[in-house]
């Protein structure tokens, strides 16, 4: 997909804004749009050409890239809602619909099927790496779709990310994303419970870290995002749990994982529990804190 490709970039929020900036810097022709005027203004200030409506954005676009909060936003935009025309009906035939939002696997498959039925191409490509990765162009993209469509969007994704992985057919990118974050949510709760138990049993944080980080308890939640201050100086615990990866986003991703666990009938017990734990954490003040702040909840709710 050459740099003269024209990209309609819809959704210029925390992630979409800096991703669009990187496409512009790489020489892509970008027409940016967001329903929130402040997001539009911010993107414009950072050099992203913006337009006044989604239809202006998709006029002549080769790629329609969406970076929205949820699957409902994506499906509404594709199909049209609230009297607004749908993007699928208005885009030129053969347009590549590239959705980078994190949404349900079933919604991603539906969105792709709708796009293909309307004569277009479709790929789901959710990301990990957060706002820092979006700004630095170091995101990881997990891509679902046909091989030739993956190869078509790969150069564009490589501008915004450092790793681009083809995970399979439609919905495969979303599947990989929620499976990874299911591991992450459960492992962060386990690491946090272990540290609070260690406190009760008289272990120092450093002693437990030195053992577990070199033993079979080793994992990213421990060695990179350690939920106690000290052992890993760069972890959010050292800055009063400023995210990082916010509790609200972990709660969202675990709800998506829960939906997939239910629809596939997996006999999972920890996933649903982790989803419930992070929903409570987000509702009780943790939404804007790093998800490793779950340890303070566990400590506060412990007896003695
Ligand atoms: P955000 O809420 O900051 O941005 C989403 C933007 O989409 C908003 O500005 C909103 O106004 C806009 N929008 C909604 N409907 C629209 C429409 N029909 N047309 C145009 N614009 C529309 O969210 P974000 O943090 O940028 O996250 C975007 C997606 O990326 C989410 O699905 C999120 O789960 C995922 N994600 C976020 C992070 C993160 O760290 N923020 C990390 C990985 C993945």
TrEMBL record:
Keywords: Branched-chain amino acid catabolism, NAD, Oxidoreductase. This is 3-hydroxyisobutyrate dehydrogenase. Residues 171-295 form the 3-hydroxyisobutyrate dehydrogenase-like NAD-binding domain. NCBIfam families: HIBADH (TIGR01692). InterPro entries: 3-OH-isobutyrate_DH-rel_CS (IPR002204), 6-PGluconate_DH-like_C_sf (IPR008927), 6PGD_dom2 (IPR013328), 6PGDH_NADP-bd (IPR006115), HIBADH (IPR011548), HIBADH-like_NADP-bd (IPR029154), HIBADH-related (IPR015815), NAD(P)-bd_dom_sf (IPR036291). Residues 6-168 form the 6-phosphogluconate dehydrogenase NADP-binding domain. Its EC number is 1.1.1.31. The keyword Protein biosynthesis does not apply. It catalyses: 3-hydroxy-2-methylpropanoate + NAD(+) = 2-methyl-3-oxopropanoate + NADH + H(+).
